[in-house]
Amino acid sequence: MSEKAGRRIFAVISFLVLLFTMAPILMLFLGAFSADNFFTFPLRNGLSLRWFKAFLSSREFAASLRVSITVSLSATVIGLCAGVPTAFAIKRFSFRGRDTINTMVMASMTLPRVIWAIALLQFYSTLHILGSYTGLILAHSLLVIPYVVRMVLSSLSFINADVENAALSLGATPVKTFFKITMPLIAPGVIVSGFFGFVVSFTDSVVAVFISGVRNITFPVRIYAEQRGQGLDLEAVAGSAIIILVIIVAEMVGEKLFKWSRFI
Amino acid sequence: MNTTKKWIPYLLISLSAVLLLVFFLIPFGQLVLYSFWENVPGSNIPKVTFTLENYYHLLVEEGPYYLKIYGTTLRLAAIATAVTFCVSYPLAWYISQLKGMAKSFLIILMMLPMIGGAMIQTLGWIIMLSPIGVVNGLLTSLHLIDTPIRFLGAESGVVIGLIQSYIPMMVLPLVTAMGSLDPNLDSAARSLGAGFFTSFFRITVPLTLPGALAGGVLVFLANLTSFVTPNLLGQGKIPVFGTVAYTQGIEVMNYPFASAFALFPMAILVVGMIVYKWILSRMRRARQAGAETEGRLAA
Predict the structure, then answer these.
(1) What is the pLDDT of residue B299?
(2) Which of A7, A22, A41, A237 to mutate to test the interface with B (most CBs of B within 10 A)?
(3) Mean pLDDT across chain A, nearest whole number?
(4) Which of A40, A22, A23 is closest to A31 using CA atoms?
(5) B179 near A CB under 8 A
(6) What CATH number did the domain enclosing A200 receive?
(7) What are the chain B neighbours of A64 within 8 Å (beta carbons)?
(8) Is A149 in Cβ contact with B249 (below 8 Å)?
(9) Which of residues 180-199 of B touch A (CB under 8 A)?
(10) Radius of gyration over alpha carbons of chain B, in Å?
């Protein structure tokens, strides 16, 4: 088979696979702009903004978004405070237990979330903190930490340790060296990892569904409960479309400013 | 950074270590312990004894029911992983050939399903697959079908959702692996007369296979333990590991049994991995020994 035909076949397959991978996200936009009372295809009444309006004026969704943002922001801050120093210690020091902490952090990322969630559910229930803000935030901070450690490790390996040693040999204290030399150099990695940590916490549905109880309902848990109870709600679809749009824009801006794809 | 103070790295990792200990290790320890303790009806704290009752109930008394659930989970995960594996190769190759803006744009797109969360994407799949959704609507208006195909509440819907969820998890590491291949290898194969597909299947695929298999294991694990996709696309009619773990934990409230249910496949997995590593190291040692004998014979 000729070179050109081979490349073309792969390009076509790739396009179809890409389309399939993006299909549910594309469909959110179709559903969100539908003018019908419930989604049918083909659309009966064309397009409208009614579901966006309904979403933006819904009190329940506003409340769940507030919970989600509070939880994710707090978890991200804790995750950064824990993760950045951990990555620095792993990269720049040799100490007993270094491999252990590295393995544990990475294991917490690959370990099935459902099994962890059921372990947390039982643990929290024993401690009577099931459904508390603190419990949810601290659990989510563990979702953030591996992202931070991995990305900060990779941005630390981009910078030359000689720069730090130069500062030290010129009389700067280690603390001053870290904040004046290292921190500015790894700042893009820290910011990008914070963004990813935030999004991963924000969109988590597994841990939150298991432990968030009935009072502090996050956005994905609210969608879950609704979906189980009454079926497809186009208000939730419109909200999801907005969230996906925000993520895409943030990703583009991040790529423009920090070239984040190199940290993956 | 050189320092004589030995406690500094420990101070740096302290917060992570404490969080991992309290919210990761201790809950897991509790899960293991609970699975060997006895349930006290109406209480969330089991009686501290050693019993195999929970595992007996899981594997023998209710064995046919629960083993069937594990079986369904394995089957659906295997199908989804195999499809994901095959369709990811061409796409990864395509992305790795691109440069500059086009490449980073596609990587950004591929990141979306990974960080967008299963819940949001499941909504998209429901729009797509419901009896009055896009796929059935299209097929009906083209007069290809009379009655809508049932995807939701059926295994097909769950598998479609699973395949889509984890394509990026397979594609992104493959793009990295293909990017680090020496392009001279491909040119050498071509100059020796290999066609496009020969070069792809005999050069690119074998060289990236170890990375792809590692990715495949992660995808398989993710498929085995997914929760949102089978729950919402299966509409409660396709009981798999993740959904039954949820029912056991939240609704039945028999923690010791729920622990045994969640841990049993984990235990099998861990044992499987140990055996796999043992076989690998045996094979490596055998090969080394073989090479040494050959070397001695040659000498």
Answers:
(1) 57
(2) A41
(3) 89
(4) A40
(5) no
(6) 1.10.3720.10
(7) none
(8) no
(9) 195-197
(10) 25
Can you give the pLDDT at residue B297? 63
Count: domains in chain A: 1
Nearest alpha carbon to residue B120 among A27, A43, A193, A61: A27
Q: Which of B20, B172, B255 minimises the CB distance to A264? A: B172
Q: ipTM of this model?
A: 0.89
Q: State the pTM of this model.
A: 0.88
pLDDT at B28: 93
Query: Which domain covers residue A180, as residue numbers?
Result: 57-263
pLDDT digits (tens, 9 = 90+) for B136-163: 999 998 988 888 999 999 999 999 999 9
pLDDT band at A69; cut points 50, 70, 90? very high
Tens digits of residue pLDDT in B162-172: 999 999 999 99
pLDDT of A119-141, one tens digit each? 999 999 989 888 889 999 999 99
pLDDT of A1 over the 70 cut: no
Asked whether the beta carbons of residue B141 and residue A42 sit closer than 8 angstroms, the reply is yes
Q: What CATH number was assigned to the domain covering residues B38-257? A: 1.10.3720.10
A66 lies in a domain?
Answer: yes
3-state secondary structure A12-51: HHHHHHHHHHHHHHHHHHHHHCECCCCCCCCCCCCECCHH
Burial, B262: exposed, middle or buried (Cβ in 10 Å; 0-12, 13-18, 19+)?
Answer: buried
> Is B31–A86 a contact, with Cβ atoms under 8 angstroms apart?
no
Q: Of B204, B149, B151, B146, nearest to B178 (Cα)?
A: B204
Torsions phi, psi of A138, nearest 5? -65, -40
Q: Which residues of B touch A120 (CB under 8 A)?
A: 23, 27
What integer best gives the mean pLDDT of chain B? 88
Judge: B227–A113 Cβ closer than 8 Å, yes or no. Answer: yes
The domain spans of chain B are: 38-257
Residue B264 has pLDDT above 70, yes or no: yes
Task: Provide Rg for chain A, Cα atoms.
Answer: 23
A130 CA: distance to closest CA in chain B (Å): 11
Please name the residue of chain A whose CA is at the shortest distance from the CA of residue B223: A112
What is the Cα–Cα distance from A212 to A4, expressed in whole angstroms? 55
Smallest Cα–Cα separation from A139: which of A106, A98, A108? A108
- How far, in Å, CA of A90 to CA of A112, rounded? 25
CB pair distance less than 8 Å for A95 and B9? yes
Quick check: B113 and A21 CB within 8 A? yes
Judge: B45–A126 Cβ closer than 8 Å, yes or no. yes
* Banded pLDDT at A237 (limits 50, 70, 90): very high
Helix ranges restricted to H, A157-205: 161-169, 174-177, 183-203
Nearest CB to B112 within list A27, A108, A248? A248
